[in-house]
Amino acid sequence: LLMKCAATSLNSKLIAHQKDFFAPIVVDAVLSLDADMSLDMIGVKKVPGGALEDSFLVHGVAFKKTFSYAGFEQQPKRFVQPKICLLNIELELKSEKENAEIRLEDPEKYQSIVDAEWNIIYEKLDKIVASGSQVVLSRLAIGDLATQYFADRNIFCAGRVPDDDLKRVVKACGAAVQSSVQNLTAEVIGTCGLFE
Question: Angle 112-116-117 (CA atoms, 0-180°, nearest 5)?
């Protein structure tokens, strides 16, 4: 009955000719949700190229490859039961804003300001590594320095993960999105069976 309902609802869509292919996928997707989950937890990812029949259901959370920096290719892409850290912070060095001005009497103090910026980002990265996380996902950018830092430590990272995808990861792995790296405890770090 569910299959017939799904096929009927697909009649008015662009994929009406493939309703026999998509109806089982739709039914499986809806039935895979826990009773307390919203249909918003089902995501559809459009990938250019290929045929409609190349579509498939991922029992888990899928997100498109995000923008990546140097070091991304060296990161591991497959983990079994990894710890997952979800962030809402930038992990990159920022250039000065327009019209930023620092007046120094002693030119050697400039280096201490630059060093302080580097120390801040390395402190954040060290705290993430100390949490034991093997996967780091952030709503905001993860720059090339952080990407390479994580790659050197066999940690996968992705920045600019869309909000709806991050919400699905929260539900799927039990993590909580953090806006600071100060309290990365076991209670806010998630886990899953397989990440690839």
Answer: 125
